[in-house]
């Protein structure tokens, strides 16, 4: 026993020595590191990296230390970027240095999500994957091509909300999933509880839980990934294995569906068929399709859920948007994408939803491939770069009263200019920006505007008392409002008829 204990002690001591040497070697520069919380010897800020209330902790660091914050997780450099201008300087203008991804031990290696486009290291495979996506969802022509589908599914969402308003969250999930699964795989989603959409929801929920920075100890101490699943405290290994089963089903089942339809000669035009006709890496195409489907479905759900929450909480905002739609579009038809430029208040409302509750509050981490110097600070090679999108969109220096929901902030007046468009950071940065941002933006706008045209959303009344929803969001990578109740009713008999005849 004493020999075993001695060996363990020596191994632990060796690890600490190696960490110390690595830290010393990586910081040999005359330039200072960015400011940040004071760390412990050897461990640095490892014990300070949050596993809960992550956004709140990192935002407090931003308010205390400034635009660029440094933390040291036992030799792993973490850099928080808390300003949009700084983030663009580094992640866009210096894209060759800042476009890599860190290794995500829990989500990427153990659960298998490392094959998804968002997880890929910067290189040929990533470029090929993004090229596939751009062909289908990255151009103005692709928006025009899919306009009929957008309109059709937006109207199905209205009918579902009219028929069963109590399950609006389920209807929103079906709407978002139905559009992206049709575009990706040519698959027509069922009206109720579609199995492919349900599988995507379950898979992405696990991904969102796993990839949140600091949520799992194995991401801070990589050696833990070698611990056997039966070992006490290694329950995360079983979580990862279960998630991997969901993931592989999501990757394989819809892809095999469209291959089967292609072999029969009955496959509709879609992302897979448009790309498989060229000389492609079929394995990469399969994973890219899965990335497109899963990512497009879940983020849209979050934004639209926030829309219904906002309409419940802020009736004056709803009234102003509806007055504009009535004045510009009228009540003889539903709004369409061609009306977008003529509805400034609705567009401002859309932008404020993005700003008020960003879907991915801490962005997707980047990683430096070489050391860099920025604004007088040393940025070590291999640093994990976290764009704190929440802080960027709630910075009181940039946005007046940032906790207040106010679409007016984006409308220029003679007294004040419009505040910055949140899309400058909402969809990510540089060479890793969301390739389907225009596509997602248009889908959300149409769902929001058609709902405003025909529905009145308000608080539920229970036993004679209005129930005010609590503004609570999940502490996960993709943040969703915790489900809430709201009342959804047609604005008029004419509005109801418009829904039914659409």
List keywords for this structure.
alpha+beta; four-stranded mixed beta sheet; 502 residues; two-stranded antiparallel ribbon
Provide a descriptive summary of the structure in words:
The protein is built from 20 helices and ten strands. The strands form four sheets. It has a four-stranded mixed beta sheet. Strands 4-5 form a two-stranded antiparallel ribbon. A two-stranded antiparallel ribbon has the order 7-10. The longest helix is centred in the middle third of the chain and has 32 residues. The N terminus is likely disordered.
| Element pattern in H and E | HHEEHHHHHHHHHHHHHHEEEEHHHEEEEH
Q: List segments where confidence is low: pLDDT < 50 over at least 5 consecutive residues.
A: 1-5
Strand content: 5-15%
Tell me, briefly, the overall form. Answer: globular
Discrete helix count: 20
Number of strands: 10
Structural class: alpha+beta
What's the arrangement of strands in the largest beta sheet? 1-2-6-3
| Rounded radius of gyration (Å) | 24 Å
Q: Largest sheet, if any?
A: 4 strands, mixed
| Average of the residue pLDDT scores | 92
Helix content: 40-55%
In whole angstroms, the N-to-C terminal distance is 77 Å
Protein name: Cytochrome P450
Organism: Russula earlei
Q: What's the SSE blueprint?
A:
Blueprint: H1 2-26, H2 54-65, E1 68-73, E2 76-81, H3 84-91, H4 95-98, H5 105-110, H6 124-137, H7 140-145, H8 147-163, H9 168-185, H10 195-211, H11 217-220, H12 235-264, H13 271-276, H14 282-313, H15 315-328, H16 344-356, E3 366-367, E4 372-374, E5 377-379, E6 384-387, H17 389-393, H18 423-426, H19 437-454, E7 455-458, E8 460-462, E9 465-467, E10 487-490, H20 493-501
Helix pairs in contact: 6-14, 8-9, 8-19, 9-10, 9-14, 10-12, 10-14, 12-14, 14-19, 15-16
């Amino acid at each position: 026993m004493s020999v075993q204990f001695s060996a363990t002690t020596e191994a632990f001591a060796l690890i600490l020595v190696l960490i110390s040497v690595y830290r010393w070697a990586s910081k040999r520069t005359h330039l200072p590191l960015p400011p940040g919380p004071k760390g412990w010897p050897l461990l640095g800020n490892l014990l300070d990296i949050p596993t809960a209330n992550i956004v709140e902790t990192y935002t407090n660091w931003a308010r205390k230390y400034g635009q660029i914050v440094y933390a040291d997780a036992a030799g792993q450099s973490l850099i928080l970027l808390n300003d949009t201008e700084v983030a663009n300087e580094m992640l866009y203008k210096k894209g060759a240095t800042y476009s890599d991804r860190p290794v995500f031990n829990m989500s990427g290696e153990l659960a298998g999500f490392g094959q998804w486009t968002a997880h890929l290291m910067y290189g040929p495979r990533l470029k090929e994957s993004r090229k596939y996506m751009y062909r289908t969802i990255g151009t103005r022509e692709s928006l025009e091509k899919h306009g009929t589908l957008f309109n059709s599914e937006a109207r199905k969402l209205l009918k579902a909300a009219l028929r069963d308003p109590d399950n609006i969250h389920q209807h929103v999930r079906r709407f978002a999933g139905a559009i992206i699964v049709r575009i990706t795989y040519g698959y027509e989603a069922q009206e109720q509880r579609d199995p492919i959409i349900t599988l995507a929801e379950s898979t992405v929920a696990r991904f969102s839980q796993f990839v949140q920075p600091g949520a799992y100890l194995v991401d801070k101490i990589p050696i833990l990934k070698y611990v056997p699943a039966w070992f006490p405290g290694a329950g995360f290994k079983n979580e990862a294995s279960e998630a991997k089963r969901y993931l592989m089903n999501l990757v394989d089942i819809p892809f095999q569906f469209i291959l089967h339809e292609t072999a029969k000669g009955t496959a509709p035009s879609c992302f897979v068929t448009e790309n498989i006709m060229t000389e492609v890496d079929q394995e990469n195409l399969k994973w890219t399709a899965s990335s497109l489907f899963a990512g497009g479905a879940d983020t849209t759900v979050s934004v639209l859920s926030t829309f219904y929450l906002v309409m419940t909480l802020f009736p004056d905002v709803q009234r102003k948007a509806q007055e504009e739609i009535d004045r510009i579009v009228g009540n003889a038809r539903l709004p369409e994408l061609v009306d977008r430029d003529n509805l400034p208040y609705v567009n401002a409302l859309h932008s404020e939803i993005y700003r008020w509750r960003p879907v991915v509050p801490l962005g997707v981490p980047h990683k430096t491939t070489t050391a860099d110097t920025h604004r007088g600070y040393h940025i070590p090679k291999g640093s994990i770069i976290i764009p704190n999108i929440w802080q960027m969109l709630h910075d009181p220096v940039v946005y007046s009263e940032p906790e207040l929901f106010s679409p007016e902030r984006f409308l220029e007046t003679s007294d004040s200019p419009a505040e910055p468009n949140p899309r400058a950071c909402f969809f990510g940065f540089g060479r890793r920006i969301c390739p389907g941002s225009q596509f997602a933006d248009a889908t959300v706008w149409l769902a929001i505007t058609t709902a405003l045209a025909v529905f009145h959303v308000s608080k539920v009344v229970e036993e004679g008392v209005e129930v005010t929803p609590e503004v609570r969001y999940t502490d996960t990578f993709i943040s969703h409002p915790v489900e809430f109740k709201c009342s959804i009713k047609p604005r008029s008999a004419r509005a109801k008829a418009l829904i039914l005849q659409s």
